[in-house]
Amino acid sequence: MLKEPIFSGVYASLVTPFDADEGVDESALRKLISRMVGQVDGLVVCGAEGEFEYLSDTERRKVIDIAVDEVAGRVPLIVGTGSASTRIACQLSAFAEAAGADAVIVSTPYFLFPSDKGYHQHFLEVSNSTSLPIIVYNPMESCIGRIPRKVLEDLSYVENVVALADSSGDMPYLMEVIEKVRGRMDVLVSNEETVYPSLCVGCSGMILGSAQVYPSLWREMFRSFTEGDDDQSRILQARVQKLSRLFMRHGLAVPLKAAMRMIGEPAGKARGPLKEGGSLLHEDREEIKVELERIGLLERAGESRVEYDLPLDDRFLDIGISADDLRSNGVRLSTASHGSGEESAVIDLALGRKDGLLGDVFASQLVYLNHGKESLPIVLEPNLATLPPCMIIPVMELRNMRQANMVYGPAQGAIAKAIADLCADGRIPHKIMDEYIMLARVFMDPNALDRSSIYVNFHQATLRAMEELLMEVGE
To answer: Given 160, 252, 286, 306, which is the most exposed site by the fewest CB atoms within 10 A?
Structure first.
């Protein structure tokens, strides 16, 4: 007969806020704990997201005391007492029990990896140092290997080793572990990217750093899953899949703290050697910001949609080409749009001879970049330009990396693909490929977020605009 899970639901593994001098920020930590109580089923401090390995023994004890005091028994409090040293893990586990914690979570030994017997002995000695429930933590971020399944099966018979928190994301491994320890040990998923499938194969809950960023979403997923609403559970997993991937692949603590600061929550900075400029580049922060906006945790910058209603002949004035210049140089123009809403696309094409006005403008735009509206050659892939050569020119000033990513990413790629498709179909004469050049002015809403919709809309708009140009050339 299977026992009821001891650990079930959503547990948030909290960051450890540090102040400007990289000391533990007690005030910010208390605010974070106070905010999270009631929003999740339990809290974890001094876990992987809490940068436990960068805390001194004294600091870890301080964080434990603060957490026990602030939680005050309102939700279960799990304390990270893991260490590469068995002796230190035992000492911290005993301290956590005396301080008033409800359970401890103990990472597998790292750096110098023991044998299977060493793993087993490590957790056995920790179990003898405390009567608290023990969660074995499999932290793939810091371990080359994972705790062997046979070791876990043996540990499942130790009375107070009651659960495994697995962050490996390895579903075959997870399924095998669940098969072998079912009924004796709870298994919790600690990998944001695999929450839904992990619940499907038997995990009783989750311990997640992202639960302090969007706790209500994970609780709604867990509720939906337990009520048998698989469709809603899948939808919620997909909703945060990209954000979860960004958190997991950039080391959890740094991106989590960046996200929390964006939404105005106390998080502090990371402690060295973790640095945002190294493990989290500006582009990564912009991606996190985009995803927070997309799921409604962060308001957009407030830019309103700007309607694009200039006469076609006047749309190249900002790069120094007047309507008279276009006519006198025999430049052909076309425009097309596709889609609706914020991801709709508008493209204006100008087609002219390489040895004429457009050739001079093309070269000038390459040499004299306009900050925020940089013009770049359109390529199918690095060093493979389209035929005829084409340059993308943003209509709107690009004010942040998100907007730049949309223009030079999906929009540019879609235009290149449309031109290549027409070449492959034989629709573009060789004379046009060899002797002509194009400018492509692109307009999209500054609030656009959906990359796939942007790609589709610009691909279709470019095809229509090109077809119109080719008809004019044919005439």
So the answer is: 306
